[in-house]
UniProtKB/TrEMBL annotation:
Semialdehyde dehydrogenase NAD-binding domain ranges (all copies): 4-131
Any one Gene Ontology molecular-function term assigned to this protein's record: aspartate-semialdehyde dehydrogenase activity
Source organism (scientific name): Natronorubrum sediminis
Highest taxon of source: Archaea
One protein family per Pfam: Semialdhyde_dh
GO BP terms in the entry: methionine biosynthetic process; threonine biosynthetic process
Active site: 150 (acyl-thioester intermediate), 242 (proton acceptor)
SMART domains: Semialdhyde_dh
Keyword set, alphabetical order: NADP, Oxidoreductase
Family: Belongs to the aspartate-semialdehyde dehydrogenase family.
SUPFAM superfamilies, A to Z: Glyceraldehyde-3-phosphate dehydrogenase-like, C-terminal domain, NAD(P)-binding Rossmann-fold domains
Protein name as it appears in the record: Aspartate-semialdehyde dehydrogenase
Coiled coil stretches, renumbered: none
Length: 344
């Protein structure tokens, strides 16, 4: 029988992607949708300005949206996917966990907390064991797992593939699509003919989240990876797909051939939303490109290319679909991992 799930923040950009990915899903059945108080009581069709690239699923269109409040969500819902803005998530997500719900959250609040697993299943599924620490420390009946920022998800799997060479220094420069800024970003035509070299706290997120993801958990404590990471983040006028330029200095020598083989061989998982292969390596010098490659693996795979050896280490580009692999799909995948691990 499918697990009953809810979507917190169901009308936003990532909320809509979540509904697209969950309807249908063989393991999850949508049973609750929440949004702001102004949407409460409306049908989903009335409340959402639907903008993703497939029609509103008919089962969802006539569901009634409720306020984002634990008292409004049925008790037999076991898993909540949260795409709430981070300030709202910080306020309300802990209340859901206290009330016994398991939350798979894309919201950036709490990602760096010591007892909250920040997980990309193919990279650090073992960090889910932190949930025992979380239960002891917070006394929640439910639980919270987070996925990282979309730009972090794009480059960290490629680093994980190279980790056996000893990661020392990483420089990453991003070219991020406007959908990362939510619907205001998509509808803002101000960015056409422009590139904006600063995106809020994005650089800090890439630097800190990557070290947490590639850190190790000894059963009691998580040690963050000690590699040095420097990020610069830029917004460009593409709709979907974050492209990133990466330079990696490793302890051991690393040729482009070895790097390409390690990325191609990097294992996927036997979860429904985990693509196989996880990383596609391109030989063409002008790939990956957002418009051509963001839908690799139904939007869940990562493209890499342009590998070359430089005085600053191995250089390459990588790309992922920011609202699928980088956000909604990442949360769904974490939900599948929780289910696989008997945590629902
Ligand atoms: C952007 N990556 O492109 C951001 C959006 O930490 O989940 C996602 C923010 C986050 O603007």
């Amino acid at each position: 029988m499918a697990v009953r799930v809810g979507v917190l923040g169901a009308t936003g950009a990532v909320g809509q992607r979540l509904i697209q990915l969950l309807e249908p899903h063989p393991e999850f059945e949508i049973a609750a949708l929440t949004a702001s108080d102004s949407s409460a009581g409306k049908t989903y069709r009335q409340a959402a300005k639907w903008r993703v690239d497939s029609p509103i699923p008919s089962d969802v269109a006539e569901m009634t949206v409720t306020a984002t409040d634990p008292d409004e969500v049925p008790n037999d819902v076991d898993l909540l996917f949260s795409s709430l803005p981070s300030s709202i998530g910080a306020d309300v997500e802990p209340g859901f966990c206290e009330d016994g719900y398991v939350v798979s959250s894309n919201s950036s609040n709490g990602r760096m907390a010591d007892d909250i697993p920040l997980v990309i299943p193919e990279v650090n599924a073992d960090h889910l064991d932190l949930l025992e620490v979380q239960r002891d420390e917070r006394g929640w009946d439910g639980a919270m797992v987070k996925n990282p920022n979309c730009s972090t998800i794009t480059f960290v799997p490629t680093l994980a593939a190279l980790a056996e060479y000893g990661l020392e220094k990483v420089h990453v420069s991003t070219l991020q699509a406007v959908s990362g800024a939510g619907y205001d970003g998509v509808s803002s035509m101000e960015i056409i003919d422009n590139a904006i070299p600063h995106i809020g706290s994005e650089e800090d997120k890439l630097e800190t989240e990557s070290r947490k993801l590639l850190g190790s958990f000894d059963g009691a404590e998580l040690s963050h990876n000690e590699m040095n990471v420097s990020a610069s983040c830029n917004r460009i006028p593409t709709i979907d797909g974050h492209l990133e330029n990466v330079w990696v200095e490793t302890e051991d020598d690393l040729t482009t051939e070895e790097a390409a083989s390690a990325m191609e061989a990097y294992p996927s998982l036997d979860l429904r939303s985990s693509p196989d292969p996880l990383i596609h390596v391109f030989d063409e010098p002008d790939r990956p490109q957002p418009r051509m490659d963001r839908t690799l693996g139904d939007g869940m795979a990562i493209g890499a290319g342009g590998l070359q050896e430089t005085p600053f280490g191995l250089q390459y580009n990588c790309l992922a679909h920011n609202t699928i692999r980088g956000a909604a799909g990442a949360s769904v995948l974490n939900g599948e991992l929780l289910l696989e691990n008997g945590l629902l």
